[in-house]
Amino acid sequence: MRSRALLLLMVSGAVAAIGKEASDPEPAYFEPSIRLSGIGVDRERIGADVLAARTDAMIQSQTFGILREPEAVLGAKRITAPGLQAIFRKAEAQSGVPASLLEAIAYLESWGNPRATSPTGPKGIMQIARATARSMGLRVTYARRYRTTTRRVRVRTKSGKYVYRNVRRRTPYSVVVRDDRLKPELAIPAAAKYLARLEQRFGGRDWAVFAYHCGEACGAQMLSLTRGARGASDQPTVAQMFFLGSPSHNLELFNAVRRHMERDYSPTYWFRVMRAQELLRFWREDPKGFLALAEYYRSDFVEEQQQRAPHRLTVWLKNDDLIYRTLEDILSCDRLVKAIDAPEYLGYRLRLKGPGSIAARDPENLDNYLRATPAALGALTYIAYETRRLYAALNSKGERFQPLEVVSLVQPMELVDKLDGKARTDFLAHSSGEVFDIDTSRMPRRQKEALEFVLEDLGWHNHLGFVEEEPRSGRLHIGPSPSSRRFFAQVYEEACEGSVGE
Q1: CA angle, 331 as apex, 494 and 496 as ends, to 5°?
Q2: Whole-number mean pLDDT of the chain?
């Protein structure tokens, strides 16, 4: 299914390109013949097949967010333990909500820990807020207690002198004497019945799952916005809510999704639950395979195995990928290719300069660092292509597109080793040749919005990973996923062919 979905996305773009009229003038900039449908400005033309493929890819992309967590394996063991399994099956019988769905929610919410507590207030295996617990019929009872404290206080006597006296005070405080949220045998059936009510209210199980995380008012608002969006079906889905909006169309829906993403990532919750169901099934069927997959999502760039991988690039790249230790290694390796310098045609400009750049550390050999793998350069080219198209759709004033400023490609490890902290971790990945950096600090605001949307779109599709190196620095660290490198390498080959005549 997943390979078919990816093929569908690529082929549909290719057909669109082949179907152009022969009389159309050649574009003034690079257009790949193979494309990823539904990306960027093309979200406006997402059909049922592309939506299904994007939904499947989005579900698979949640693997990183789940398995990078240190408790992912322990959580699978807890959730599938006989005691909890009996509770999940009983809750399914009472509510009609599948036990596998309840398991997946409990897995994501608490890793199966009945005593789990969120800093924001929700508690228990299903992470239920206090107000929601009340609506579920769960009891959360508090009792008042008093704490007596004594302290010396300076007081004035009737004669006008100051003396110190011990003053006792009773300070009230509350304690929980009963909290049904912490009892799985009560919390799981209550959550199941609550989900059943949400499904009846919103008309779909996917919306019930979404509202479980985002809240009922949030669910009602987002369902209403999705119903009014161009391209939505009569009974819209959560996947349509996520994919139908963009900066160029269905703007109100897009902005609402973005707000909730910034708040708590609720718009991706249903996709995560779907992937959690698959992963728990995988754990049951093939525990060794699950452990191997979990090990793959451990980062080689964190010192302790109990720490979560900071971003996708630290999972996709392993220590064995860092093969360029010296400049000589870079020059002698035929795995790297020279970056094409054609800003107007390809949409990016090579500028390996600025504070902390390799130009400052080894200015004499700057030209030798204008290299990367074909996949990395193809990803850069494709990002520029999609960004330029989306920016054209957003740009009502006809402002000129500014080629993306590339400030780092391959770097030898001997130069990176002179750095420390997070900078060293991110720059170390350049010793693989699979990553590049873009500086957005001087980019026009609307163009930056277009770039960020394209990166998010490709990232949610699991085609690339990106991270800002320092908060508000404007420097983005980007690399293609292992599964997408072949596609991006093909884009690079096309770009080479087209740039010959430039």
Answers
A1: 10
A2: 89
How far lies 351's CA from each of 359, 401, 411, in Å?
9, 17, 14
First-to-last alpha carbon distance for the chain, in angstroms, is 40
Q: How confident is the model at residue 8 (pLDDT cuts 50, 70, 90)?
A: very low
Q: How many Å apart are CA 227 and CA 232, to the nearest integer?
A: 6
pLDDT tens-digit map of 50-62: 999 999 999 999 9
Residue 242 contacts by C-beta under 8 Å, 6 or more apart in sequence? 58, 257, 267, 268, 271
CA distance 211 to 201: 10
Closest residue by Cα to residue 440 from 419, 410, 468, 409: 468
How would residue 301 be classed by pLDDT, with cut points 50, 70 and 90?
confident
Count how many Cα atoms sit within 13 Å of the Cα of residue 482 in the half-sphere of its side chain: 11
Question: Is the torsion defined by CA of 214, 243, 313, 296 positive or negative?
Answer: positive
Picking from 47-61, 166-180, 197-211, 447-461, which range would have the lowest pLDDT averaged per residue? Answer: 166-180
The burial class, CB within 10 Å (0-12 / 13-18 / 19+), for 193 is middle
pLDDT in tens, 152-162: 888 888 888 88
Over the stretch 90-104, which tens digit does the pLDDT of each residue have?
A: 999 999 999 999 999
The residue among 477, 483, 476 whose CA lies nearest residue 461 is 483
Structure tokens belonging to residue 105: 């929610």
Helix axis angle, 184-202 to 99-110, nearest 10°: 110
Written as one string, the DSSP assignment of 158-173 is TTS-EEEEEEEEEEEE
With beta carbons less than 8 A apart as the criterion, state whether 37 and 9 touch.
yes
What is the rounded CA–CA span in Å between residue 170 and residue 279? 53
Q: Are 455 and 466 in contact (CB under 8 A)?
A: yes
Distance between CA atoms of 357 and 372, rounded to whole angstroms?
Answer: 16
